[in-house]
Amino acid sequence: MNKFVAVLFASCLVALVSADEAEINKQRAAAGEACKKEQNVGDDVAAILTSKQIPSTEAQQCFLECFYGKLGLVKDGKLNAQGAQAIAKAKFGDDKDKLALADNIFKKCEEEVAKVASEKCGLGKAIRTCFVNNGDQIQIFPKSQ
Q1: Between helices 122-134 and 96-112, what is the axis angle to 10°?
Q2: Fewest CB within a 10 Å sphere: which of 1, 41, 54, 65?
């Protein structure tokens, strides 16, 4: 009986983590679609979401800044650590090692990311650059990228 309960609990835990991951993916898709409309860009610009590419155009930078804002990563013109922690919690659940690693990366990015006043949508580029430089440790990007 105890073995059955343990297996049932493990199955529920896997389903819960999968549900959180599915919810994150749903939010990402909705944010991407909303920003495509708001920024008036096509799939060519939005494709940056599925790559490790640093934005090279203003359209890509503004799209990313919009996207990060919709996910709660940007607030008041800067990287929002609380929003980042909420996403990490949803993605990693109670995995303390991954949560600590994510927290360290977001703190590092918070220090590195400064909105470039002379560059329109510079925050989108700065956040992406930090994620590209530091994100492999927690697989911010899909493994195939």
Answers
A1: 140
A2: 1
The parent domain of residue 119 ranges over 19-135
How many domains does the chain contain in total?
Answer: 1
Integer CA distances (angstroms), 47 to 2, 32, 51, 55, 92, in order: 48, 10, 7, 11, 25
Residue 115 has which token pair? 């909105």
Cβ neighbors of 127 (< 8 A, separation 6 or more) are: 64, 65, 68, 73, 74, 79, 109, 113
Q: What is the pTM of this model?
A: 0.78
Buried/exposed code over 51-64 (b: 16+ C-beta within 10 A; e: otherwise): eeebbeeebbbbbb
Q: What is the pLDDT of residues 40-61, one digit of tens each?
A: 999 999 999 988 899 999 999 9
* 3-class secondary-structure state, position 75: strand
Backbone angles phi, psi at 90, to 5 degrees: -65, -35
Q: 83 with 77: CB under 8 angstroms?
A: no
Helix (H) or strand (E) segment spanning residue 74: strand 74-75
| pLDDT digits 0-9 by tens, 56-87 | 999 999 999 999 999 999 888 888 888 888 88
